[in-house]
Write a structure and sequence with these properties.
Family: Belongs to the calcium channel flower family.
Number of strands: 0
Membrane topology: Multi-pass membrane protein
Structural class: mainly alpha
Order of helices and strands: HHHHHHHH
Largest sheet: none
Distance between the termini: 68 Å
Oligomer: single chain
Number of helices: 8
GO biological process, one term: vesicle-mediated transport
Subcellular location: Cytoplasmic vesicle, Secretory vesicle, Synaptic vesicle membrane; Presynaptic cell membrane
Radius of gyration: 23 Å
Organism: Cherax quadricarinatus
């Protein structure tokens, strides 16, 4: 078994929000995938099957208690929990795109959009906590260019552009 990846100091609500969107969005995406399969367009049927498969993958990773009757889900969930946040984000975002590309309907966009949103939330968690105000000011002061650059001359003397 792998140990969970070291987490950055994140707010508790952000972790539960990503899991909640993954679980709830997966359930909604699975229902909308079934709805997508009730058509005569072959690409929309394939997109609905893909969306249901993606929803099952997300649900089994985020809420393994929903799939406890399947043997490998607990091992899979533990393995996914050990991944870095950016890896989960990239996986969920890539997993959500094919259904929308195959059949860009309202049900597909909404269902896969919730899986995509879960990936975006994990991506935000991967970026980490925002720096303090003092850190931002110090970083901005370090990035200022030389005072004699062309842009500084134009800002200091608006009439300088006529002489060049």
């Amino acid at each position: 078994m792998t140990t969970p990846a070291p987490q950055v100091d994140l707010p508790w609500w952000q972790k539960y929000l990503a899991r909640g969107v993954g679980c709830g969005g997966g359930i909604i995406a699975m229902g909308l995938g079934v709805f997508n399969c009730l058509t005569i367009t072959p690409m929309c049927i394939v997109a609905g099957i893909w969306q249901m498969l993606a929803a099952f993958i997300v649900i089994s990773a985020e809420a393994p208690c929903c799939c406890m009757f399947i043997d490998f889900v607990q091992q899979y969930s533990t393995w996914v929990e050990g991944r870095q946040h950016w890896q989960k984000a990239a996986f969920y975002i890539i997993l959500a795109l094919p259904a929308v590309i195959m059949c860009p309907g309202l049900a597909t966009i909404f269902g896969s959009g919730l899986i995509f949103l879960c990936g975006v939330l994990y991506g935000m968690m991967a970026l980490g906590k925002k720096g303090s105000r003092e850190d931002m000011i110090a970083a901005a002061q370090q990035n200022t260019g030389p005072a004699n650059s062309q842009s500084a001359i134009l800002v200091d003397d608006p009439e300088a552009w006529r002489s060049t």
